[in-house]
Automatic annotation (TrEMBL):
<dbReference type="InterPro" id="IPR036388">
    <property type="entry name" value="WH-like_DNA-bd_sf"/>
</dbReference>
<feature type="domain" description="HTH arsR-type">
    <location>
        <begin position="1"/>
        <end position="90"/>
    </location>
</feature>
<dbReference type="Pfam" id="PF12840">
    <property type="entry name" value="HTH_20"/>
</dbReference>
<keyword id="KW-0804">Transcription</keyword>
<dbReference type="InterPro" id="IPR051081">
    <property type="entry name" value="HTH_MetalResp_TranReg"/>
</dbReference>
<protein>
    <submittedName>
        <fullName>Transcriptional regulator</fullName>
    </submittedName>
</protein>
<keyword id="KW-0238">DNA-binding</keyword>
<dbReference type="InterPro" id="IPR036390">
    <property type="entry name" value="WH_DNA-bd_sf"/>
</dbReference>
<dbReference type="GO" id="GO:0003677">
    <property type="term" value="F:DNA binding"/>
</dbReference>
<dbReference type="InterPro" id="IPR011991">
    <property type="entry name" value="ArsR-like_HTH"/>
</dbReference>
<dbReference type="InterPro" id="IPR001845">
    <property type="entry name" value="HTH_ArsR_DNA-bd_dom"/>
</dbReference>
<keyword id="KW-0805">Transcription regulation</keyword>
<dbReference type="GO" id="GO:0003700">
    <property type="term" value="F:DNA-binding transcription factor activity"/>
</dbReference>
Length: 107
């Protein structure tokens, strides 16, 4: 049975976002990832598992070690989905900024 996880639920967690940021810089073993957190290694392993199930992380065997690295293709899919919303909110904030610049309080 294959578990399907929602990618947006996965990245909603700050620890998982931090793991993605770490692994984006270089591939890491689970132990190396866990060293960057105060949580137990078991807790970090659960976060890694969720990120892997969402295909945000991929694993690569190198001898006895497993290294996790970012799945750039999946990250791009997420970014492409979010981009229209980012543009929409940028436009709205720019319009609000223009209104506030031209606002003259009534005396």
């Amino acid at each position: 049975m294959e578990i399907r996880r929602d990618v947006f639920q996965a990245i909603a967690d700050p620890t998982r976002r931090a793991i993605l940021s770490l692994v984006a810089l270089q591939a890491m073993t689970p132990g190396t990832i866990a060293e960057n957190f105060e949580s137990s290694r078991q807790t970090i392993s659960k976060h890694i598992k969720i990120l892997t199930e969402c295909e945000l992380l991929e694993q690569q065997q190198n001898g006895r070690e497993i290294y996790y690295h970012i799945n750039a293709k999946k990250i791009k899919e997420v970014a492409d989905f979010i981009e229209p919303f980012r543009k929409m909110w940028d436009d709205r904030f720019n319009k609000l900024e223009d209104i506030m610049k031209n606002y003259k309080p009534k005396n």
